[in-house]
Amino acid sequence: MNKVITVSREFGSGGRELARRLAEKLGYAYYDKEIIDDIVAHTDYSEKYVEDIMENRTYRFYPIKIGATFSMDNDYAIKQMQDIYGAQATVIKQMAERSNCVIVGRCADYILKDNPDIFLFRIFVHAAMESKLARCLKHATKTENVSEKEMKKRIIKVDKGRANYYNDYTLQTWGEKEYYDMCVNSTNINIEEMAGHLSHLFM
Amino acid sequence: MNKVITVSREFGSGGRELARRLAEKLGYAYYDKEIIDDIVAHTDYSEKYVEDIMENRTYRFYPIKIGATFSMDNDYAIKQMQDIYGAQATVIKQMAERSNCVIVGRCADYILKDNPDIFLFRIFVHAAMESKLARCLKHATKTENVSEKEMKKRIIKVDKGRANYYNDYTLQTWGEKEYYDMCVNSTNINIEEMAGHLSHLFM
């Protein structure tokens, strides 16, 4: 039975690093950006378009789960979004079937949750705003000049996009602790150490 | 620097067992009911009264933190509650200063949160209702005859009392993930195994 760890994360929480280090320590496959590459390879959509849809940067429709009559344009756009979500679900299920792995974001926790053939462990990583801000600014200053205020806006916006995408497709609430096996607050922790400790859960 | 693990928990989540096993595995002191014993030893209140106050079974006032004019009776009762909270805070701080320890409930996470002399790790244990119900019924049937419906009501009532007590005194929200370092969903886990894994966080 494959072990699959899904890591959902607030922007700037270090969740991606935690996921990567967990995968390294356990020798598991690691899927993050690879999910988008796979979707692009199996559909006609561009990488940019798939990314935009998955981060909810382009459209904010009526939730897909609510039946309604849409104009032609809306229908077409929604069809595309559903196409992408379908491709995403297929890709994630294949990854989980292939080997032990760590999957970052992309509703993988929800997509895999009723699969009896895998051992699923769903982690959500979050942090206090000042901690996320500090981490983001540290990474950003290498390549761009962004103020603290702008970065805070970006953090809120990205997380809003992730929450909208997740909530629309899953009938669950992004970040609500009941939907995860463990929520890790990264505000006061060393990510590498935490990854080492958590890896024991899967040995 | 003493390591102090606080374990807050939903009723029936197995949080107390997790706390006890963590303490055992780490060789830490374990404080649960002992907190009440200590308060009783240092005040004039009975064990029953202290327990009732701390589980919010007797009164539900205006929040202590909101200033207001009360009748004499209310004033007196609030004075008693504040007395007990004060004693609780003193006892918990002494426990944390004494040695490495695991403390169950009683707002210990909040009481200790700004203490620079300890390493504090705040855990919240929660579970799906059906899981809590199964655990409670398993324990209850040994001594009492209680229906599933009654037990569900009891679980909701106990947790409401804990939340009220915590929220009134701490200006935080009981069970909100941002106030804890880790939230553990015990629905699908073996408590003993999880305690073993988590103990690595403190070694």
Number of DSSP strand runs of chain A: 5
Share in β-strands of chain A? 5-15%
> In which order are the strands of the major sheet of chain A placed?
2-3-1-4-5
Biggest beta-sheet profile of chain A: 5 strands, parallel
Give the ordered list of helices and strands of chain A. EHEHHHEHEHHEH
What is the C-alpha radius of gyration of chain A, as a whole number of Å?
17 Å
Number of helices of chain A: 8
End-to-end C-alpha gap of chain A: 13 Å
The helix content of chain A, as a percent range, equals 40-55%
Question: Looking at the structure, what is the overall shape of chain A?
Answer: globular
Identify the quaternary structure here: homodimer
The largest inter-chain interface, given as chain pair and residues per side, is: A-B, 19 and 19 residues
